[in-house]
Amino acid sequence: MSDIADVMFSGPCEALVVLAPGVPEAEPFISRDDQATSAFRAWLTDPYDTDLSLYTIVDAGSVFGLQEVLASSALEHCCLFDNPETFDAAPWLVKLEPCHSLQLFSLNGRDAPGQLGPCDPGFLLQSGAPIDQLRKHLRKFTQQQVRGEDRRLFVRFWMPDAAHFYFDAVASNPDKTAAWFGTMIERIVAASDGMAMSWRLKVTGTGSASTASVRLDLNELEAFRQYRKVQFRRNMIAHFQKKAPDHAEAMGPEVLAEVVTRAIERARTYGFTRTSPAQLYIHLCLGLGVGFDRDPQHRWAQDILRDTIGDAWDQQTRADALRGGLIAYLARVNGRKGEHLAAFVKAVDAALSTFGPQVSCRETKAFLVAHFVTRTREIGDDTLDWLVEDTRTGCERLGLEEGRSVFVLTILRFVYGAECMRDPRFGWLHRCLYERPKAGTKDRALQTMFAKFMADSVALAGKAG
Fold it and tell me: Boundaries of each DUF4123 domain copy (predicted)?
């Protein structure tokens, strides 16, 4: 029997076996600090297994002009695919030389095309085989037949993030492990964003290296599904950081990641699993609140989700219907350029100093009707009454005694969703409502934080405008 031993590097050229024989768990061995990264790079430039060669696999689809860069490097290289028409988007196997600068070239495309510079090493292999034999071996795994099914799939095992999932799945199958490593590969390393994992064959008995083991098992398929989920989440976070940098910065990376994660999970309950539909759902959560699909203020969205959830519509068609509903809603409620919402936010900011501590629920409702006509007309009088009364009773349960606290919390739920108390974007609100204040009353803590939040919102809206 064979298994893969995980290795943790604690210093330059120093290895510490951290798992006993058996199936390893996913354990990153490189932390995100500079010292660990330096240790890993030292190992790359001076591998302790000096009788072995160091190879990397680079995806030409991720690095513009890769063939030209490789041709000018004088390093041995070859494409894992045979068809020349695919070379511009295919994986390339490159044999690295000790201390050669190209082993740190722009594998992830962050540097200008053809430029050399430090970056993450991507996918690496240690092998004693010449490049032509290693290519022949690796080609067995680029396209695999799904076990028990009459279909073959391309397997992009060289993508660093995917490799973290894939090779852990491979490790659970002794025959597949032996088929992968055998006598051909000593170690595989996948690294990205300063994080890396290493796998190597540790022989504890006999294992079959037959090519009959080269079938794509269900657990390997599931590994790639998990990879796609992680990759999609990262892409969505990066997308919103690029499209709305000010809002993303205001939320912070951890909060944005939490909102995106919750939104993706909720989107799946409506059958939104593809990129575009799930992306739209995340937009809705960020714009209307994480619980918009349960919020009585957004029945228009719930009607579309409920009416289109059947098999009659595919998910893209359903997403298009939801997108059309959102565009129409924003136009009639917030205004073509968001002018109604912006005016309401400014009105709230100005009203904070005019309302006394015991502002009534009637005054709160009247303020909403007077300053956001389109929104109150949209949700209807019954829903507005429910919102104010539900907020009042909630404040009583939480020990908030002033009517101004009811006003503050009603405004937040009115603008940012009825479930904003549980929205990751409003951690300050959750603390004000459910934790004992360090000084003063809970009412004072809530109102002080709300005033600061509104001032920041006005400033952010002005910056965006």
Answer: 54-169
3-state helix, strand, coil in the chain (%, to 5): 55, 15, 30
Structure-block tokens of residue 146: 């799904």
- Predicted confidence at residue 440, as pLDDT, reads 84
Residue 119 pLDDT greater than 70, yes or no: no
Which residues are registered as beta bridge partners of 11? 14
Which of 359, 346, 452, 371 has its CA nearest to residue 405? 359
How long a stretch of residues is the chain?
465
Sheet architecture: strand order including 91-96: 14-17, 2-11, 195-203, 187-192, 122-127, 53-59, 91-96, 77-79
* Cα–Cα distance, 47 to 52 (Å, whole number): 8
448: phi then psi, degrees, rounded to nearest 5: -65, -45
Q: Which helix (H) or strand (E) holds 270?
A: none
With 0-12 / 13-18 / 19 or more C-beta atoms within 10 angstroms meaning exposed / middle / buried, residue 242 is exposed
**3-class state of residue 108 by DSSP:** coil
Lowest mean pLDDT among 40-49, 158-167, 172-181, 362-371: 40-49
φ and ψ of 372, to 5 deg:
-145, 70
Residue-averaged pLDDT of the chain: 77
Radius of gyration of the chain (CA): 28
Q: Are 297 and 418 in contact (CB under 8 A)?
A: yes
Residue 57, C-beta contacts closer than 8 angstroms, at least 6 positions apart: 80, 91, 92, 93, 94, 122, 123, 125, 138, 158
Task: Please report, for the chain, how many H helices and E strands are present, in that order.
Answer: 18, 11
Query: Among candidates 52, 68, 69, 65, which has minimal Cα distance to 184?
Result: 52
**Quick one: which of 192, 195, 180, 185 has its CA closest to 31?**
195
Residue for token pair 């292999």:
125
